[in-house]
Amino acid sequence: MSQDFWNFLFIGLSFAVYIFIAIRSRAGSTGEFYVANRGVSPFANGMATAADWMSAATFISMAGLVASSGYDACRLLMGWTGGYVLLTILMVPFLRKFGKATVPDFVGDRYYSNFARFVAVVCAIFVCLTYIMGQMRGVGVVFSQLFGIDIWLGVIIGGAIVFFYASLGGMKGITYTQVAQYTVMAFAYTIPAIFISMALTGNVFPQLGLIGNTTGADGNPVAFLDKLNTINTELGFSKYTDGSLSKLNMFCITAALMAGTAGLPHVIVRFFTVKDVKAVRTSCCWTLAFIGVIYLTAPAVGAFARVNLIDKLQNTSYTEAPYWFAEFEETGQMAWVDKNGDGKIQYSGPGKATEGKSGAVFKDKPKHILGEDGKKIRGEHGQLLVSNEVDKTNPNELYFGTDIMVMANPHMAGLPRWVIGLLMAGCIAAALSTAAGLLLVLSTSVSHDLMKKIISPAMSDKVEMRWARGAALGALVIGVWFGIDPPAKFIAKTVAFAFGLAASSFFPTLLIGIFSKRMGRSGAIAGMIAGITFTLGYILYFQFNLPIVGKGTSEQLLFGITPEGIGFVGMLINFLVAFVVNIFTADAPQEVQDMVENIHIPTGSGGASDH
Amino acid sequence: MRPLFLALDPAKTLSKSPSLNVMSDHNPISYRRSSIRIVLSLLAVWFTASFVCAILARDWLDEHLPSIGNAPFGFWMSQQGAIIVFIILLIVYRFLMNRLDRQHGLVDPE
Fold first, then answer.
1. Spatial contact of A578 and A524, defined as CB atoms under 8 Å apart
2. Which of A181, A302, A371, A539 makes an SS bond possible with A429, Cβ 3.0 to 4.6 Å?
3. In sequence order, what are the residues at sequence separation of 6 or more whose Cβ sits closer than 8 angstroms to the Cβ of residue A66?
4. Is B82 helix (H, G, I), strand (E, B) or coil?
5. Contacts of B94 in chain A (CB under 8 A)
6. How many CB atoms lie within 10 A of CB A358?
7. Rounded CA gap, A194 and A200, in Å?
């Protein structure tokens, strides 16, 4: 059976399932469209949230990031799981009890201000749009590699499928497709990991393999991590278990990612779909357990793949390199430049083992040189030539993208072709599930928060539904547009923008709203605006070459905190400004204070009983 | 059918909820205090497992605590341990809060 057959089979089958589910769960009312009638079981919601949460980038690139940055990657691992602890014990049970459909709903009602609601809507739209661009791009890239079509066509096909089931089924359709998508993702991620772990360390569980033994160069068992450290230091990288970021920066980035996770609107609304507060608590446990399946495997996958990759390629002559090297060369995920002319692949780095690009063989992604007949030109050993300017200051000859550590895994472990088909289906599932969840928040923000609550409160349920579907289409067109022609610099900074903004706006504002009943609207709005302005300004100044002020240098960083971690400082500023302003302005009125008291009582939120 | 996001008026909910009418053993102040205590103690564990063990005191722990398998303690916490602790925390939270609700009679009728 050829690879194409398996790819088509798995992707075709999974698509058939998604569309079948969408048709079965058509949404008739806004209640179904926004929150699936609050009838989703905690277990199913846990799976759906996990699929929603893990994007294509997490699925394909996280293991690679861990592999290249070693210890430093723990900020991502802990940041994107630890946020669920904050989310569970500080936010969602209370927001669920409050019983509205969206996050700006809570902000608008709690701070009795349509201006606060409007700020929240703008933030939600900005966060979701930043996020969705990368997802659509991811779908396009996978499709183009699979079927040899152009990326733009892949983006449009992916977009059409997401639109079909998201706008038809709303939250209900999305939830049950995400359950199916999580299942595909979990198998696609863990099966190759288990086989590789058995081959490399003899352990069925990759998590145990990571801390177990492997066979050393002399045939005797050595600790796997020691072997990895030896490989790293021999090649000129820093030790795998050593970090390179300052403790303060690590602290701030981890904290910003955690607070950002707990403030992301598309994650919070997922917990509005279950029956009551008790169900929210159960659902949170399932969610983190399902996320943990992949997050606990990723460090092992990354470490194994790094050892395998270097083992198989280091000092191998190009003509004898494994077959998959040429395949990934063709798709631009790997490249080799024979700097010293010995015909052998050498990977080395004076550069530290972080995402810092020093020590890379060339800048950016490889651009192949095309001949006059449109064919790619090959060098003397048969390698594809690139037009990138080669950095001759280091001896490194090998380029590989971070997604290689997951994509090449089944090849390196010699797994059958169907595993690769499954992996492809998993990639697409990861991108689609996240895109659909974001699309729903975008469309609700427009139809519910903007149209219904601010512009035209007299609107009927049916008209609101039409707005929701129309807004989904609008959001998707924008998402597809940016997916085809991405503002590259912007997408690469999704983490800084989306999490920084969520950490400095939603998280503190929601937290104060839930736990301080006296906070009035002036304090909250002032805090929100101060937090957002500071965070956005800092990120823009250090990431983009702005007119007039120019671009910040690394010496100018505040206490050496990089833009990824500045959301934490923005959050502190938000808290501080809010409480200081509240001293001089009016407290919340009595009925709002009563409402805050009420959300702390866990009973009486049963939405299902309304039907 | 009314869309359900309009259906929750706090005052109505309060009187509608049958459990609140029979809450002889529900003391709002002690309930609030106990739930805050649960939240704060779980947050303390959360902070210790992630920020203290995996970042701030990592080097010291690597040296002075026994390894987990072949991984130094702090490194293992950063890559695996913290996540496992998070999952356990959520299970404990669910258990403690559900028990507290029952003690205060704050349970929705099935």
1. yes
2. A181
3. A73, A76, A77, A298, A299, A301, A302, A303, B79
4. helix
5. 281-282, 284-285
6. 12
7. 10
User: What residues in B contact A289, CB-CB < 8 Å?
Assistant: 87
Residues 6+ apart with CB under 8 A from A220: none
CA distance A360 to A395: 9
How far apart (Å, rounded) are the C-alpha atoms in residues A467 and A595?
A: 30
Which DSSP symbol is given to A606? -
- Is residue A605 packed enough to be buried (19+ CB in 10 Å), middle (13-18) or exposed (0-12)? buried
Question: What number is the average pLDDT over the span A364-388?
Answer: 76
Put simply, whether B60 touches A (Cβ < 8 Å) is no
From the list B8, B28, B93, which residue is nearest A99 (CB)? B8
Length, in residues, of chain A: 611
User: Over chain A, what is the mean pLDDT?
Assistant: 82
Where is average pLDDT lowest: A108-112, A172-176, A291-295, A603-607? Answer: A603-607
Distance from CA of B65 to the nearest CA of A (A): 15
CA distance B21 to A16: 50
> Does the distance separating the beta carbons of A250 and B87 come in below 8 Å?
no
In A72-82, which positions are buried (b, 16+ CB within 10 angstroms) versus exposed (e)? bbbbbbbbbbb
> Hey, how many other C-beta atoms are within 10 angstroms of the C-beta on A393?
9
Q: Which residues of A touch B90 (CB under 8 A)?
A: 84-85, 88, 281, 284-285, 288
Q: Count the residues in chain B.
A: 110
Residue boundaries of the structural domains of chain B: 28-103
* Angle at CA of residue A228, ends A222 and A233, nearest 5°: 115
Residue A241 with chain B: CB contacts under 8 Å: 71-72, 75
Candidate from A89, A247, A607 with C-beta closest to B4:
A607
Which residue among A241, A295, A598 sits closest to B14, beta carbon to beta carbon?
A598
* pLDDT tens by residue, A456-503: 788 788 888 888 888 888 888 888 888 777 666 665 666 677 888 899
Read off the DSSP letter of residue A385: P
Tokens encoding A324: 């998959």
Domain ranges (residues) in chain A: 3-49+88-307+417-488, 334-402
8 A C-beta contact, residue B46 and residue B89: yes
A524-548 per-residue burial string, b: 16 or more CB within 10 A, e: under 16: bbbbbebbbebbbebbbbbbeeeee
User: Across the interface, do A285 and B19 touch by the CB < 8 Å criterion?
Assistant: no
Q: Tell me the chain B residues in contact with residue A88 when contact means C-beta distances shorter than 8 Å.
A: 90, 93
C-alpha dihedral over B58, B60, B61, B63, to 10 degrees? 120
By Cβ distance, the residue of B16, B35, B50 closest to A254 is B50
